[in-house]
Amino acid sequence: MVRPIVKDPVFLSQKSAPATALDLPVACDLRDTLAAHREGCVGMAANMIGVAKRIIIFDDNGTSVVMFNPEIISRSAPFETEEGCLSLPGTRKTTRYRSIRVEYQDEQLRKQRRSYAGFPAQIIQHEIDHCNGILI
């Protein structure tokens, strides 16, 4: 189901709780909502659709990837950039890393570790910031 985008900075500034098997349906809502906003959006966190759980989705070169309870376990090559967000007006400067390694659970709740670089890494960092209540 396509959900409305939350724009309340007080809600978005709260840390999200760990996701569990009960939260699996949120992945479908995130997938539908991201698809509905594909022209201006490449990733979302569950709190952007009103669910304060650690779940993100992002476009990885044309494939939607969902991560439950993602954590960045290593990062390298910091750079300054400017990002926008569906939940917030305008763009803001932020520091990101060109390469990251992420530990997460997939949609079958199996633990995974994967490295990302470039734009997918940047998207993941933005969405994990959402999970941590960090607004750019």
Radius of gyration: 14 Å
The name of the CATH architecture is Alpha-Beta Complex
Structural class: alpha+beta
Domain module tally: 1
CATH topology: Peptide Deformylase
Order of the strands making up the biggest sheet: 1-2-3-4-5
- For this structure, the quaternary state is single chain
Shape: globular
Characterise the protein shown here.
It contains three helices and five strands. The chain has 136 residues and is an alpha+beta fold. The radius of gyration is 14 Å and the shape is globular.
Quick overview:
The chain has helices at residues 9-12, 24-36, 118-131; strands at 43-45, 55-60, 63-85, 88-105, 111-117. With 136 residues, it is of the alpha+beta class.
Write the layout of secondary structure elements.
Elements (H helix, E strand, L loop, with lengths): L8 H4 L11 H13 L6 E3 L9 E6 L2 E23 L2 E18 L5 E7 H14 L5
Antiparallel strand pairs: 1-2, 2-3, 3-4, 4-5
